[in-house]
Amino acid sequence: MAYIPDEVIEEVRNRFDIVEVVSSYIDLKKAGKNFVGFCPFHSEKSPSFTVSPEKQIFYCFGCQTGGNLFSFVMQMEDCSFPDAVRFLAQRSGITIDPVPSTPAEKKELQIREVLGEMHSLAQKYFQNILWKTPRGKEVLDYLSKRGLTKQSVTDFQVGYTGNNREGLTGELRRKGFDLELAVKGGLVGKNSLGRYYDYFRERLIFPIWDSQGRVAAFGGRIWGQGEPKYLNSPESPLFNKSRTLYAFHLALPHIRREKKALLVEGYMDVILLHQHGIKETVAPMGTALTEKQLSLLRGRLNKVVLVFDADTGGEIAALRGLELLKNEGCMVEVAQLPQGWDPADFVKEHGGKVFHQEILQQARSLVDYRLFTIKKRHDLKKEEGRVNYWKEARKVLGEIQETLEREEYLKKIAGEIDVSLEVLRGDLENIIRSFPAVGKKAVVKEAAPKSVSLKELVERELFTCIFKSSRYLKELKKLNINADSFLEGPHREIARVLYEMDQQGKEINTAAVLSYFSEQEMHKLIIKMVLAENLNEEDKMEKIFRDCARKIKTLCWTDERERLIKSLQNTVNREEISAKLQRIRDLKKWEEELYHSGEGEDFDV
Ligand SMILES: [Zn+2]
Question: Rounded to an integer, what distance in angstroms lies between the CA atom of residue 336 and that of residue 499?
Answer without folding.
Answer: 60
